[in-house]
Amino acid sequence: MEARNCLECGQKLAGRKDQKYCSDFCRNAYNNRLNEDSNKYVRRINGILRKNRRILEKLNPEGKITTDGITLAEEGFNFHYYTNIYTTKKGSQYFFCYEHGYIKLENDQYMLVMKQDYVK
Q1: Burial class (CB in 10 A: 0-12, 13-18, 19+), 33
Q2: How far are the Cα atoms of 17, 61, 102, 111, 120 from residue 116, in angstroms, in the given order?
Q3: What global pTM score does this model have?
């Protein structure tokens, strides 16, 4: 029988044949270390998306309002990050941060909206 060792700490394993770690701690440590580099990037992007969502939620408590781009920028909104784009039949594009969205109007105005059930 071949000796098996924990992928994280190297301790000898006893038990199931497909066992890879000696404990939950080692399993978590191994996976955290494995994903560490990509997690930094993902955490940064998710932080930006959450901030954008909070700003839209704060400025649009009723579900639909018009505001200017300066107000969004002063709050720290980052227009480069959003979770999805919804294009209407007429070709207008709404940018969403989760369920909160916006569309650019004329004269640096933005209409803030909440995602409706029929918007996929």
Answers
A1: exposed
A2: 50, 15, 13, 15, 8
A3: 0.70
